[in-house]
Amino acid sequence: MSQKLPPAPRPRKHGLGTAPQVRRSSAPSSARKSTKTTGGNSNLLVVGLGLGGAGLLAVIVALIVLTRAAPTSSEGASLAAVDPVMNGKAGAGTSVAGMAVAVSSTPGDAIAVSDTIPGKTTIHGKTESNQSSHAVTASVVEPIDPAVDLWLSEFPAQASALRGKVQALGTGDLTAKLREPALRRELVRHEILRQFSPKELLVFLKSPSEQTFLKEFFSQTLWMEEFVGSGSFKSPVTGLLALAAIAEFDPEIRKPSLEQKIATSVALETAMSDQTPVNAVQIYRYYRDRNRQGKLHPGFVQLDIWEMRFAVAATVTFDELTWIGNRASFSPTEARSAAWQVHYLGDSPFGDSIQSAWYYMPWSERLNYTQKTVRVGGVCGSLSTTGALSAKADGIPATTMGEPGHCAFAVRPERGKWVDGNSVDGNHRTPHRNYFEANWADLFAGDAAWMHPNLREAQYLAWAAEVLPQEETNVRTQIYKQATLANPFHYGFQAKYFDLLQQQNAPIVVKSEAAQLAVTTFQRTPETSWLLIKRFCQGGTSSSDRVALQKIWLAGYEKPVENLVMQMPLDRIVEEMGKQRDQAAKPGLFGDVLQTTISNDKIFARFLDACQKMAAQDVSLKEGLLAGLAAAATSTASNSEDALKSLCRQGILLAEQTADKSAFYALSELGAKFIKPNYKTAHKPYSGVLLSEGGIPAISTTCRWDEPLEHAGILKESGGRFHTDQEANPALVVELGKQGNISGIAIVNVDGGNSARAVPFKVAVSIDGKNWQQVFKANKNEKVWQIDLTSRRPLAKYVRIEGDYPDGRKDFLHLNGVYVYGRPAQ
What we know:
The protein has 826 residues and is of the alpha+beta class. The protein has 7 domains: 1-21 and 317-449, no CATH class; 22-80; 91-129, no CATH class; 136-167 and 176-315, no CATH class; 452-556, Serine Threonine Protein Phosphatase 5, Tetratricopeptide repeat (Alpha Horseshoe), CATH 1.25.40; 573-674; 678-824, Galactose-binding domain-like (Jelly Rolls, Sandwich), CATH 2.60.120.260. The chain is 43% helix and 13% strand. The chain is built from 30 helices and 19 strands. The strands form 5 sheets. Strands 12, 13, 14, 15, 16, 17, 18 and 19 form an 8-stranded antiparallel beta sheet that branches. Mean pLDDT is 82; it is low at 1-136.
């Protein structure tokens, strides 16, 4: 019996804009618009029908001409309304008030300004309509360089000759010297070919047309720059094979054009995956044709190759991409909700688990991957993959990303801004597509690096350094320093510079200077600067130097940072700091962290939580944490109330867990100015003194209704409060201020409708906190439970109040006072 497929989910509205537009026709939007614009020509058809065959033929020809002309205007109208969130910065040339600015691809070259036709943009001497969907970055194809054959067949000799040229430049500032066009062409060519054996290409690309493509590609400096300078890739050979295959399919990519940008982006993404050049051709065809048909987001044509790579999908088939692209259209702000096209379904309609190979088996012969996920369902991986793919199908930058036990995705609605989709843990993210490192901060830092005006200058410096022998460490270090200073946002160049300094065991003064630059540059993305500084905190670096470097990083967050990327694994960073210190210096870490960040209200609580997690893994560090809390509390400024309250609350709970009375009362006294207790705690005292005074309470659990700042009050006449979480046996254990023979206990209940939660409960006493003797059980709700123990006078150091509920019941325990009277033991 056949199983009916679940219906595809309908477009849903959400809080991020209007509902996605479901495409109900495969006709391109531009074609639909052109139909409207030519609607007024229907009179020609009426006239033609009255003119016989010749007249009708003439009218048909006229209609064809008019219809072909229409898409130009409709495309112009479409691009005139380009959503600015995907435009980013202007393209290579921008028309302003009838003037056009032509920007050379070579940084530092003069900017030419010329009169031009309004509404047109001059780009490298070629006038293009700024309403065209085929924006270009250059217009001239460089002639084939005869030296390409030598570079492909005799790479070592050519590399050696280039090495001599670079060495002859000296060790001063190389920026200006590296602007010479012929030298640049050799440097970028070397940067590509050094990553593999050039003869590998000649093995695969044998036909005359493929050989011609190689010569053309390795002769065009700008194209090579975009290929090797638009982010990382795993296999440059695969990328070049894909590019060659696309060039065979569409010769248009051999000249500077939008088609060349799309082809290069697809080829580079193919080089990051296990896909074949054949698939790359199909994916290229998808984006080329969809753009021409007006089916991609109009901002797609504004993307540079480094960002277009995030907007093309090279790991799926043409059919999968086409199906999801035809299904729905999303704006960049809506795309983060694209995952919810998929039903969240752990078991298939046949009852098979998503973890089973049988989940999609019944539909494997009929549906492709995207069809199966949308029509059958899935869990986090299926949802997020579909979400990211839907964005890419519309030409919007996106990537899937891992989270602990979960898969999410991210979308970039504008340059420098990434938003998450289907996320559950914002602090531990590993984007599957990134610039340098698999972390959330990398997406922001990478955007900043490629948006930097000195990107090419810095890249050529780095490429020059890679021409030199590895043993010329000093010279390479100086060149990478120049690259870092030219574009400090480029994590890759900074990382290389840090590694070279560490390799040379540079003095701490030099390392500190580099660390300070990293913190200043990446202050908005702390994880990025930490990953750099961490490179110094290993190997032969002394523990004291590591501590000094850690303090430089912490100092960057002494005050709040505007637009700080809060999503970062601070718990892991603090743990790594601890591992980098020797055992004697570890306890001091907490003081360094908390004293430095106490005034930063936006992030201090996160640092404190990270310190607590580290101390929880090693009991020997808890005293160090308490000392750090005390030091931070005494050094805090009066205007940091939120940070101080957070410190006191967390510290009080920790002091209770470790039974540290001095820390408990110091922090309680410090936090007393933030509370105004007003509780009715009238009760009948018993003989002797108040043994509970000076003691310390400890609750079994805490929750959002708990107020640690008032815990000390429950042992004082003023009263206080505590609030456990909902559990089967919530409990409060009080370590008395003095061990003694108890004459009586008064327990003050809370006011209000929740007072009955406490009963039934039982009271027990103990000398060692391990062996307990029950002395009372409450079955009736009271305002105050008076427990007279005069006749028994048990000797005790601890008193425990514990919920004694029937099986299956869970509840909260919250009281306003616990007063234990008696005579102190001699």
